[in-house]
Amino acid sequence: MLRTPLKMMFLVPTHAYAQNRMFGLPPAPESVTGEDMLEMLEWPEAWGLEETGHDLLFDRARRDPAMVRVLERAHELRKLPTGHGINFASPRHVNAWIAAGIMNNHEAIDVEQAVCEAESGLYVLLRHAPGLENIPGTVGALHEERCHSRAFQLCPDVAWADTIFEGHFDETVRQAVRAGIDPIRALQMATIQPAEFFRANHEIGSIAPGRFADIVLLSDLGKYEIDSVFVNGQPFVRRGERVCELPQPDYPAWTRQTMRLPRPLTADDFTVAAPCVEGRSGRASSWSRMATISLTRSLSRCAWPMASCSRIRREGSIW
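^ thats the sequence. predicted structure below, dont judge the formating
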């Protein structure tokens, strides 16, 4: 992997800590601990907490003292807890989460939820991600419900394979414009507003004296077609082509060989076998669990024998 000029903002990975625990499962071997998170919070590079959920804070049966302490320490250090909030039982539960200091949420999937969270004081992140194309379903909060765009930001959530070809945050901006958001407001929701949220607008988020000279030039504002990119005031991309060399970092030995497998994997290890019923076939949606307990439809569809389809309808998911 080459060294790029991207400026990273590190958030302590609370989601990695909570991933198994929120489902009532034992933590993975050598996973992040509460002590690890407290140590990382002290790093000057740490801006806050990543995707802090409500399960381990407010569910009395599962309340996790380590997670509570990490959240308290983040507030003591005046670092930002970002949110991961789904399946709230009522607006009162949303209020409790906000009262605990959570600042934003990227899990709104409809207008009602987006309006409720924005009116309660959360910054609402409109998300465009694989299987989670939520902008069309939530943009009505700005259009019909007339919420101010200052309460909203854009969010690509995760990187996926198609970003190599379609773009990542830039594609999220395009999706926002296609959903009817004014192009200038969409850019504000992707630049200055996130910078202000992270209290980093003295360095990034706008073109102004004293900021990093990271500038994107567009050939078409409405389509967000990128012509050139400048990083730290130096040309990086012109007419869609990179114009500078990227160095190859010398990664330390401890970053390598971190996966311990009993044998090398082959293509056959990734084959999904299905029962074959001669002369009978059908199409079934495949499903995946996207970092939450709720099931979300994946981008692709695959052919399955009809006998398998009936099993899918009965059990509700494929693993």
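The radius of gyration is 22 Å.
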